[in-house]
Structure formats: C-alpha cells, structure tokens
Design a protein that fits this description.
Low-confidence stretches: 1-6
Order of helices and strands: HHHH
Number of domains: 2
Structural class: mainly alpha
Radius of gyration: 25 Å
Shape: elongated
Number of helices: 4
Mean pLDDT: 81
Helix content: over 70%
C-alpha cells in the first residue's frame, strides 16, 4: 500500500512539474509577444509621427497634410469596424485580425 501511495505521490509530483513547465512556457510566450508588440508599436508610431513634417518638406500645405492624415485615420477606423463585425459574424476571432496584422 505504501508503494502505491508512493507511486501516486510521485506521479502527482511529476504532473505538477509538467504543469509548471507548461505555465513557464506560456508566460515566456506571452512576454515574447509583448516585446515584439512593443517594437512594432515603436516602429509604427515613430513612422506615423513624421508623416506631417515629411509631407510639409515635400511642399504640401497644412490643409493637404490635414486631409491626408484625416483620411488615413478614417480608413483605419473604418477597417477596424468592418473587420470586427466580420470577425464576429464568421466567429473567426483569430484569422481575421491576423490577416489584417500580416498585411501591414
């Protein structure tokens, strides 16, 4: 009886170790995705912040810069709305946002 209890205790300890390994792997993955997202946001926001001055250097008026920026924002938010509704309707919560992210 002690052998069975000992084996059961050993199996439970092994299961705990496997669960701990999976938990650490999941945490490592989440942190890695967060770091990748940080660098992607830095790149995107950095490039986006120079759009106005770059257009001005090219000779665009303030009105043209405002229109280009406004249309860009409108398109971005419109695509988010459409893709969100499409994702909800298709119940495809990962493929739709992933296709949008990969098309950048």
């Amino acid at each position: 009886m002690t052998d069975a209890a000992g084996a059961g205790g050993s199996a439970a300890a092994a299961g705990l170790a496997i669960g701990e390994v999976q938990r650490r792997a999941a945490l490592r993955f989440v942190v890695l995705i967060g770091v990748v997202s940080l660098f992607a946001d830095l790149t995107y926001e950095g490039a986006r912040s120079i759009t106005g001055p770059y257009l001005a250097v090219l000779g665009a008026s303030a009105t043209a810069v405002g229109v280009v920026t406004g249309v860009g924002e409108l398109l971005g938010y419109s695509l988010r709305l459409v893709s969100g509704r499409l994702s909800d309707r298709l119940r495809a919560f990962w493929p739709v946002p992933s296709s949008g992210t990969s098309s950048r």
